[in-house]
Design brief:
By secondary structure, the protein is mainly alpha-helical. It has 2 domains: 40 residues; 85 residues, no CATH class. The protein is built from 4 helices and 2 strands. A two-stranded antiparallel sheet has the order 1-2. Helix 2 crosses helix 3. It is globular. 7% of the residues are buried. The structure holds zinc ion. The site of zinc ion has 8 residues, from helix 4.
């Protein structure tokens, strides 16, 4: 049937475009990461990219998410660092200990993360 041929080629075209976009998105991500690193901005990957780059971290996040959902871990309503009320995010010192978290507000999370990163950089400097 002529109709099915058209459908077939449209399908292939979509697949091709999807593949192309996917390839390109990697390039865009790469470019964006470099640009942000040069400017000293923190880089936030998209969900899939994040999982690929940080498998332990992504896994820890899922484990924690499930633990909260099942009520194993209770999310407080106040930041455990500064006491501010509102939305809190789990901050992990060690991604191998997914349930060992400190619940902090976005602001504290940012500073804690920065301090942790500096600590890691410091250790790297000593090693290499
Ligand atoms: Zn706080």
């Amino acid at each position: 049937m002529a109709g099915s041929n058209v459908e077939q080629s449209e399908y292939n075209n979509t697949e091709y475009q999807r593949a192309y976009r996917h390839e390109n998105s990697d390039k865009i991500n790469e470019y964006r990461r470099k640009w942000l690193a040069e400017k000293g901005y923190p880089y936030r990957e998209s969900g899939k990219e994040y999982e690929r780059l940080h498998p332990t971290k992504a896994k820890a996040r899922i484990i924690l998410h499930n633990a909260v959902k099942e009520g194993i871990i209770k999310k407080p309503e106040n930041c455990e660092e500064c006491g501010k009320e509102g939305e809190v995010i789990g901050f992990r010192y060690d991604d191998n200990e997914p349930l060992d978290v400190l619940w902090v507000c976005r602001r504290c999370f940012y500073y804690k993360n920065k301090a942790k990163q500096e600590e890691v950089n410091e250790q790297r400097r000593y090693v290499g």
